[in-house]
Design goal:
This protein has 9 helices and 9 strands. It is of the alpha/beta class and 295 residues long. Strands 6-7-8-9 form a 4-stranded mixed sheet, with helices on both faces. A 3-stranded mixed sheet has the order 3-4-5, sandwiched between helices.
Length: 295
């Protein structure tokens, strides 16, 4: 606790001074009376007479001390729960949002729903907007400015591909920047990809459709074994042979580099991914365990 006007607390010195004056005055006012028997005096005195005699002065001192402390303006900084909330709207702007099965279109219906949601929120609620198609982008950082949010929603346009996972990760990262209790996503940053490309024993193989990257896989070679991981294909082009051609190209690169074996890293229990690698000729080794450590 702090005191805004600490100098006023010096007035508390008046309390002991007034106690001393009170005692001095009580002693000075003493008078002598003669009684034939002290026992009669004790009986005549009411019970608690001494306490009631000094109680008014004690209450006066308590009130005076409280007033002096209040003049000092004591303050204390405390943490209290706030009513603020942060919401990230992840909106799909892929080409399929141009469909008119929902009138007037999927995108316009999503925009109307987003605007209605924004309008219904409290003034203290911060809202951010993530748009995703082939990649995800935070087009409006969290803010309580409804006009800025309306402009961001109205500016949405469609693009190719649908990276739902990237949209979710981008939304989580936006929240993590505000709330440090939320862990950011762990993905390959542009710096990480550049480092992999620059490494003499690592390659990033990509599949392109016109000006768009629709698939990729990372291949490394440790001098004996090639390792393939982070195989990814655009959702709209899966089951079209893109992943199979990427793996075949990675195998050709590894074979030319001198690799004798190749292994694929599959994160988590994903039946479609496991089925794909099995169909590509890779065998699952149940007895092999992978250990990792953050550096």
């Amino acid at each position: 606790m702090n005191v805004l006007w600490p100098g006023s607390l010096l007035l508390l010195g008046l309390v002991p001074l007034m106690v001393a004056v009170y005692i001095w005055m009580r002693r000075r006012r003493r008078v002598g009376l003669r009684y034939s028997s002290l026992a009669l005096v004790r009986v005549a005195l009411p019970r608690y007479a001494r306490l009631r005699q000094h109680l008014p002065f004690a209450l006066f001192l308590l009130a005076l001390a409280s007033l002096i402390i209040a003049l000092g303006r004591p303050v204390r900084i405390v943490s209290v729960p706030s009513g603020h909330a942060t919401i990230i709207l992840a909106i799909d702007v892929s080409g399929s949002m141009r469909q008119t099965d929902i009138q007037p279109s999927r995108l316009e219906a999503a925009q109307a729903a987003a605007l209605s949601f924004i309008h219904d929120q409290k003034a203290t609620t911060q809202i951010g907007i993530v748009a995703f198609a082939g990649y995800a982008e935070l087009i409006q950082p969290p803010t309580s400015d409804q006009e800025a949010l309306q402009v961001a929603v109205a500016s949405l346009t469609t693009a190719r591909a649908t990276a739902i996972g990237s949209g979710i990760l981008k939304a989580l990262d936006a929240i993590a920047e505000i709330d440090h209790n939320v862990a950011p996503s762990v993905t390959d940053t542009p710096v990480d990809v550049a480092r992999i490309i620059a490494a003499p024993s690592a390659y990033v193989l990509v599949a392109v459709d016109g000006d768009f990257v629709v698939g990729s896989v990372i291949a490394t070679f440790d001098g004996w074994r090639a390792n393939f991981y982070r195989l990814a294909v655009d959702l709209e082009l899966r089951r079209a042979g893109v992943a199979r051609r990427l793996v075949r190209a990675a195998e050709d690169w590894a074979r030319a580099a001198g690799a004798k074996r190749a292994s694929a890293l599959v994160e988590g229990d994903r039946p479609p991914a496991l089925a794909f690698w099995s169909a590509a000729g890779f065998q699952h080794h149940a007895g092999i365990r992978r250990y990792t450590k953050s550096l």
